[in-house]
Amino acid sequence: MFENPIIIDAIINGEKYKTEKQEPRENPTHPDEIVGYAPVNTLEDTVKAIDVAYDTFTTWRTSPMDERIERMRKAIQKIKEQTSEIAAILSREHGKALYDSEGEIAVSLMWMEYACDHVKEVLKNDVQEHDNGKTIIAKDAIGVVSAISPWNYPISLSTIKVAPAILAGNTMVLKPSPLAPLAVSKVTEIIANEFPPGVLNLVHGEADVGVELTSNPKVAKIAFTGGTETAKHIMKAAADTIKHMTLELGGNDAAIVLNDFDVNDERAMRRLVISNFLTAGQICMIAKRIYVDKSIYERFVEKYIEAANKWIRVGDPFDKNVTIGPVNNQKQLTFVQSLIDDAESKGAKVIKLGKILDQNLYEEGYFMQPTVVLGANQDDPIVVEEQFGPTVPILPFDDDEHAIHLANDSIYGLTSSVWGKEDHALKVARRIQAGTTMINTAAIQGLDVRFPFGGVKQSGMGREYGKEGLLAYTDTHVINLPKELDLPYIPE
Ligand code: NAD
Predict the structure, then answer these.
(1) Is there a domain that residue 398 lies in?
(2) 168 partner at 20 to 30 Å CA-CA among 178, 197, 290, 358?
(3) Residue 484 covered by a domain
(4) CA distances from 349 to 137, 271, 394 (A)
(5) What is the rounded average pLDDT of the residues 12-30?
(6) Does the C-beta of 152 come closer than 6 Å to ligand 1?
(7) In which band, very low, low, confident or very high, does the pLDDT at 103 lie, cut at 50, 70 and 90?
């Protein structure tokens, strides 16, 4: 078992690094309880971590691939052995139900294993013999990677970067979010301990640390998951030194329910409810707007509410009957409530869903009963903005063209889903602007670490997961051995 409260240190050059200032992290279920303390690193600490990563890169980039894979597999094994303790910390600091924390760790391990299994093949030299000699297309490590992750899935959205980056021969400085810093630090420590000092460094802090990580000239690549507004600052900070970037940003994912969707299909309806409310709706790829063909709208709403009432049980993340815990923080709760209040003030109907299992606890923590919002307009903030919380608007559409228009009418394009008969759904899916579109399922239920994930439009650039997620931490290096060394058209 880990200590209580949990004390986290930064990790610089393989050593635990104490800071003068520490930030408490409260338990969103019982906000008076401090789960642990994370360091608040200074800019000097951050520069030191970057310098160490920069110096270590010169040796790590040439280390044998087999050695890197073996080290990562040892880390995977240790994380597996400690899954239940790490999941418990995550549920305490984050508020997500225990099954959800365990699921996050399982997906992280799945990806780390995929990375170990495939990195050698994906990054191997492509040697081409041709009419003018030979060309080797190599994949080189890029350098120091700054990884910055958000609070909603802190472990998976950090390991999604750490594993491919260091397997490819890069070194890294990781900064998790102060709103869920503890469990991810335990995982990072396990990984860092399996690698030579300086390969994986960990710092904590707010935006000032983030600015250093994204502007320091020794950083070659930024791997960021977080909000679109933050990404705009990062792009500006990185501009002076032209850094490589993978950006996984906000989403406002549409779920389109076609006229041939069977509203009596209870399993499908349950999947749709889960795709709106898992992790209290705090997932980038959650379905955040539901558009339903007007010919089935009334029946759909009735059956959706029935399914939601069955699945949604709000309460203590450690209660096995609970499907949804509290929201992670008060600011998020206030923001989501303001979107709901705004819609209601304009005439929309707000319907509460599911059961609250413990009313006293509900009043103590950052809890929010899930809702559907009926009668909102396409340009209302609850439809336009990423709510990132347990609410979802349901809007009718006239025909498929109209649905496609409404779904694409957004600055975002992360994931989306189409619900109905497969052929019909496929035709509609092909016309949606999104990085991923799922048929008859959505959100994490349709995620597969073997295939690339990322957004279009302002939902990001680049891809994580799959082969693209491994290649993202490399530069292409072409080595030419031409037979004809002199070009015929250049005069003697
Ligand atoms: P955020 O943008 O507020 O913070 C993300 C991280 O950036 C944190 O570690 C934060 O400390 C750091 N940061 C803040 N200001 C910075 C700056 N100026 N420079 C560098 N770093 C800075 O996001 P959040 O509230 O933690 O997470 C929620 C957002 O993340 C949502 O918009 C969600 O959609 C998005 N998200 C996207 C994906 C995806 O894969 N596309 C996945 C999860 C979350």
Answers:
(1) yes
(2) 178
(3) no
(4) 59, 23, 10
(5) 97
(6) yes
(7) very high
